[in-house]
């Protein structure tokens, strides 16, 4: 049932091109630049959005926050569900609460949803598991269609959630008139490329290179992950994946925040993974890379294919297929998953049964 793979996690990593195809299929109309989500939600019926989720789903929500604000110009805030449910949040009929969950059973997320409903919010679930508890309590569900995910460390659900967030941001942007036809077509095209780009990210020579790097640093006791803008969540997701399955302590920061504290951690034993793929902020990220190197940190840079110029600033480079910045978190996440996977296997850990973790957290 693991389809010839050593673990569910690895199988699910390789299922991503198919999962993404299923997330996107029938929803994109490149010719007209329209997105069809088949949900009853009236895109003009709210003034602000609250995104609520836990763990990996929360990081997918962070990408969503960025995309929705950029493309649809709606104010978005985001909370971890366990905070939202107890902080007496400001909710009204003008609020759209979006809950993001692979399982649809996470108790904190479910309770936070109930809290939002009490305040009169409209509700939308971005969910993988069909007919799960959350889907029964939201007004609308946008299924991500990633297929069953068994590995405790979420992989394909994450990339499908991020893609669903992109679809939602595009749909809202078109419906609310903030996103022009030409930009919409460009982004739809970029979204449609995702399965192919992720397939390319999983090419054997790329995977082998990531395995080599993972083995080189597997004995580090700490790791730092940095990213900016739409890829700061990629850094968080990379750190979470590594912690969950390799038990190496990892922290993530938006790259620009490094100098406000975490820079004190940097020495020659600290691997620092920096997401430095094609972006409007790339130059700023590279200056952060130089700050790491000046303090002898070991830089593992994620660079876009062909970026040989910035390779000189890194100790090790993971090249990823070039992607439009707005869709790049999906492609970049794959490299993060593989880095965590090969670190854990190099240390002899069972990636499908990480200690202390359950696939779905139905207790508080
Ligand atoms: O089923 P959910 O998406 O609601 O689960 C939320 C988190 O518990 C989950 O993403 C967790 O962080 C994963 N183990 C991450 O790999």
UniProtKB/TrEMBL annotation:
Coiled coil stretches, renumbered: none
Catalyzed reaction equations: D-fructose 6-phosphate + L-glutamine = D-glucosamine 6-phosphate + L-glutamate
Active site: 359 (for fru-6p isomerization activity)
Main location: cytoplasm
Full protein name: Glutamine--fructose-6-phosphate aminotransferase [isomerizing]
Localization per record: Cytoplasm
Keywords: Aminotransferase, Cytoplasm, Glutamine amidotransferase, Repeat, Transferase
EC number(s) from the headed UniProt entry: 2.6.1.16
Physiological role: Catalyzes the first step in hexosamine metabolism, converting fructose-6P into glucosamine-6P using glutamine as a nitrogen source.
An example Gene Ontology molecular-function term: glutamine-fructose-6-phosphate transaminase (isomerizing) activity
UniProt subunit comment: Homodimer.
Gene Ontology cellular-component terms listed: cytosol
């Amino acid at each position: 049932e693991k389809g010839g793979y050593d673990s569910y996690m690895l199988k699910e990593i390789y299922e991503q091109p198919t999962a993404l195809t299923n997330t996107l299929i029938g929803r994109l109309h490149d010719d007209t630049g329209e997105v069809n989500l088949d949900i009853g939600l009236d895109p003009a019926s709210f003034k602000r959005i609250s995104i609520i989720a836990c763990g990996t789903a929360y990081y997918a929500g962070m990408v969503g926050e960025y995309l929705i604000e950029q493309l649809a110009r709606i104010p978005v805030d985001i909370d971890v569900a366990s905070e939202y449910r107890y902080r007496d949040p400001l909710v009204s009929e003008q609020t759209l609460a979006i809950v993001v969950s692979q399982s649809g059973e996470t108790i904190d997320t479910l309770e936070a949803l109930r809290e939002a409903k009490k305040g009169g919010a409209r509700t939308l679930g971005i969910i993988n598991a069909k007919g799960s508890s959350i889907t029964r309590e939201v007004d609308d569900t946008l299924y991500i269609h990633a297929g069953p995910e068994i590995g405790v460390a979420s992989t394909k659900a994450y990339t499908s959630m991020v893609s669903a967030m992109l679809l939602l941001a595009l749909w809202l942007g078109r419906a609310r008139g903030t996103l022009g036809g030409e930009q919409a077509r460009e982004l739809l095209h970029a979204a449609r490329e995702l399965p192919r780009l992720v397939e390319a990210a999983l090419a054997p020579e790329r995977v082998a290179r990531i395995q080599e790097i993972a083995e080189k640093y597997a004995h580090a006791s700490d790791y730092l992950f940095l990213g900016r803008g739409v890829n700061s969540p990629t850094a968080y997701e990379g750190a979470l994946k590594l912690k969950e399955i390799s038990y190496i302590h990892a922290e993530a920061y938006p790259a620009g925040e490094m100098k406000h504290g975490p820079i004190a951690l940097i020495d020659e034993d600290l691997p620092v993974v920096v997401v430095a793929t094609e972006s409007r902020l790339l130059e700023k990220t590279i200056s952060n890379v130089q700050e790491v190197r000046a303090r002898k940190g070991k830089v593992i840079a994620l660079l876009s294919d062909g970026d040989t110029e910035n390779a000189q600033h890194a100790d090790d480079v993971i090249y990823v297929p070039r992607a439009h910045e707005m869709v790049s978190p999906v492609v970049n996440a794959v490299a993060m998953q593989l880095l965590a996977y090969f670190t854990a296997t190099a240390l002899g850990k069972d990636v499908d049964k990480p200690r202390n973790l359950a696939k779905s957290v139905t207790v508080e």
